[in-house]
Amino acid sequence: MSDPSRTSASPARFGLTGPRSEEQLHATGWWSGGRPAEGAEPVLFALSRSPDPDLALRGVDRVREALGDQWSELSDAVRADPVLRGRLLAVLGSSTALSDFLVANAKRWRLLAGTETVDVERFTPVLADAVAGLRDQEAIRVLRLEYRALVCLVAADDLAHVVDPDLPFVSYDDVASQISDLAVAALRAALSVASAQTHRSDECTLSVIAMGKCGARELNYVSDVDVVFVGDGDIGVATRVASTMMQIAGQACFEVDAALRPEGKAGALVRTLDGHASYYKRWARTWEFQALLKARPVAGDEELGRQYLEVVRPLVWTAADRDNFVPDVQAMRRRVEEHVPSELVRRELKLGRGGLRDVEFAVQLLQLVHGRSDEALRITATTQALAALGKGGYVGREDAVEFGRSYRFLRTLEHRLQLQKMLRTHLFPADDDTAGLRWLARAAGLSAEGRLSESQVLLAEFRKHGNQVRRLHEKLFYRPLLQAVANVPTEALRLTTKEAVARLAALGYAAPDGALRHIQALTAGMSRRSRIQGALLPLLLDLFATTPDPDGGLLAYRKVSEALAETPWYLRLLRDEGAVVQRLAALLGTSRLVPDLLVRAPEVLPMLADTDALVGRDPMTVGNPLRSAVSRHNALERAVAAARSLRRQEMLRVASADLLGLVSVRTVCVSLSEVWVAVLQSALDAAVRAAGDVRPARVAVIGMGRLGGRELGYGSDADVLFVCEPVEGATDGDALRYASSLAETVRRLLSSPSQDPALQVDADLRPEGRQGPLVRTFESYRAYYAQWAEVWEAQALLRARPIAGDEGLGERFVEMIDPIRYPEGGLDATAVREIRRIKARVDAERLPRGADPTTHTKLGRGGLADVEWTVQLLQLQHAHAVPALRTPSTIEGIEAGTEAGLVDPEDAAELKAAWVMATRARNAVMLVKGKPGDQLPTIGRDLTAVAAVMGHPPGTDPGEFLDEYRRTTRRARAVAERVFYDS
């Protein structure tokens, strides 16, 4: 197939649209007879790929005019040498300023010839040799010329790949390093000239410290070069040398800015080493330490520069110890952004939202906080520091890669914009600047994609990277963990074994040697996981120290970390979400139940970052997701396993919210009760599905006791009754065999051994207790209660409510027992005496031997039994006449009795206070010990932990909690004696 360019009658085929394009091409000798001249096609194709082909051709034509008779040599070289062709046309099509330089110095085109990339090693000798022996304006003129020539070479190498993809691609990092090295060479040349022309310069020693982007070797094409001077000997002479050096470099190459020196522009230009040390130790502000992060000696006396670093670097890595360090840095970034005009904030590549400063501030803040203990982070260049942060686990791998990619993209755009006219600019073209956008897109190596033009592709990429930078900046820069880690003193991050043991003991660890072993196990090796743990542990140690059991918390953390070692998001969550770390430490240092649940339900851990998710919705609906999930399993064992798993998750969620003080005792009890109901419902439904389609009976489960009253605690059993009713055509025997099989299956599967808190289904409140059948028919219950029911059974039925199985059967069961539990006319004197006799017997016989009746939450004086029996006696006596008393809830029963005038309001308040306190304390014992118990601890860390759960934080006297508990229950006991015993 023939090349269409050979038959084209217009240079437009090569992107050349200028009115003089054909004339200019003819003049170069690359166009003849309305088509490309012989051998000129590669040149024209290269022109077409230039960022601005017309600009490049005008530049060629101007160079041709400047060379005159010598043009043919360059023209032939451009045809023959792809490296020269790519470099020359890329520069001429990208930069009017560098075009002007090549026109003014046309014979320097040979600078761009050759096959090797830029040799940065020759920057210093080239400039040094050029100015050797020169002074004043002649030195400035020569330095300016040689410096601009080398900038042109760096730019040519940087841009050549855009014109010819076969030429080597030079990364942003390499280009920034080359520009920085060239600036350093210029500083050295300017310093040599300044020293030579300053009287008595041999009486002083001067070292030039590069700061900012030059110090980090990430300089722009056009940028001020930030420096600080340190001198020795005659400081007055050193100041004159420094000032002269700044003037020479400023007139020849770039502005030299010394405003980052101590006291800024108001301070001395040159200080001694001691002067710098004194200032930074006593007066320096937070931002000055941030600036010192990139300090690097680049010119002058090497030994003095090395000594300067030895003085300031240790100070840099303790800056994060300063009060309000993190907020100060964050506030500084906000102030910088606020100075950008609102109409330009989205176009400002450097200072705007999603701009370069967002990356740089985030990276520097992370370095200064975590670099105190990790020397691998003590890197000056932003991209390299970001890579180190990612490798060390301080930033997620993907976040580090995306942040670095976006930073390089934005810096590349900044370089291209500055090259255009060699002016200091950071402003992205306006959306309606089509020509500017197209030029920048091509200069950045972007091309049209599908229906999107080059300009549209650039805009899409710019917005994508800007949004990504802002998202990651806000994620990392405002990470709550940063302030918490910064609050840990630097000396606590780097301790010898002996010092670590002493510090752990001082923090309150009872077994510091054991704690140190846990730390060593968590941080052993050089893996990314161990690095993240190393960053987290100093903070965690301090957090555990504020909990009731620091040693237990650290041990639990080790167990959880080892159990979740292969869970990819675990440490990432702790690193990125400060609230999770703080809340997890509080939970692990208080509770033995939480870590046991957490290793088997880690999916709850992310909820610690989201208070709304942790608190949950209406506690009456918490069982709905469980029922829905279990219904999808057909296999009985799998369905029950799913139910147990979801119960574990929900119990952990509720326990975490409870320990953190986010939910009320009512929410806890109702949530646990509804989860238990959902488990029973799901298990029964699964058993029915597994039994097959033949169903000779309707079956209902009646909740009793605390389950019926929605008052379950973490360790409560589920008290239930099973009732059945034969369907039409089935006998009572068929119904009982079927229902008994279902009931036994549910009890067996739910009560099977597990590491979770027990799922004990207790049917001992059925007629005849354990001696009676597990399941009865509806009519059997009716007959039994009509003929044999005792007063204690009527009392037990006060909390009965249908919870699972056939709804109609459950409702009819409740209607059937209402006359029994709410007897017409109330109780006679004999029945009242019997209830009081049973209660007195319970008090005397069921309290465990050795138990303290003043701190036993269930059977102790003023405990749960006293309150509940008091309310239940009122219900048996008055519920027939007072419908509001017909409630399975103890608290609602007290409130109804008060409304009806049956209980004095003050007495009601004492009963409610005691019931709430005893319920919370009983739950707290389970949370703290990890196993159910009714007896409050009275000494040791368990008491401290229970007191903390009850609102008495560590550091206060836990005995105050016991005093409060005894005082509250003592008052409730007095009310019970008046109301229940009528004494």
UniProtKB/TrEMBL annotation:
Residues 1-10 have a biased composition (Polar residues). It comes from the Bacteria. Its EC number is 2.7.7.89, 2.7.7.42. Residues 489-983 are annotated as: Adenylyl transferase. Keywords: ATP-binding, Ligase, Magnesium, Multifunctional enzyme, Nucleotide-binding, Nucleotidyltransferase, Transferase. It catalyses: [glutamine synthetase]-O(4)-(5'-adenylyl)-L-tyrosine + phosphate = [glutamine synthetase]-L-tyrosine + ADP; [glutamine synthetase]-L-tyrosine + ATP = [glutamine synthetase]-O(4)-(5'-adenylyl)-L-tyrosine + diphosphate. Residues 331-477, 852-980 form the PII-uridylyltransferase/Glutamine-synthetase adenylyltransferase domain. Residues 1-481 are annotated as: Adenylyl removase. One of its GO terms (cellular component) is cytosol. Residues 1-36 are annotated as: Disordered. One of its GO terms (biological process) is regulation of glutamine family amino acid metabolic process. One of its GO terms (molecular function) is magnesium ion binding. Coiled coil: none annotated. Signal peptide: none annotated. Involved in the regulation of glutamine synthetase GlnA, a key enzyme in the process to assimilate ammonia. When cellular nitrogen levels are high, the C-terminal adenylyl transferase (AT) inactivates GlnA by covalent transfer of an adenylyl group from ATP to specific tyrosine residue of GlnA, thus reducing its activity. Conversely, when nitrogen levels are low, the N-terminal adenylyl removase (AR) activates GlnA by removing the adenylyl group by phosphorolysis, increasing its activity. Belongs to the GlnE family. This is Bifunctional glutamine synthetase adenylyltransferase/adenylyl-removing enzyme. The gene is glnE.
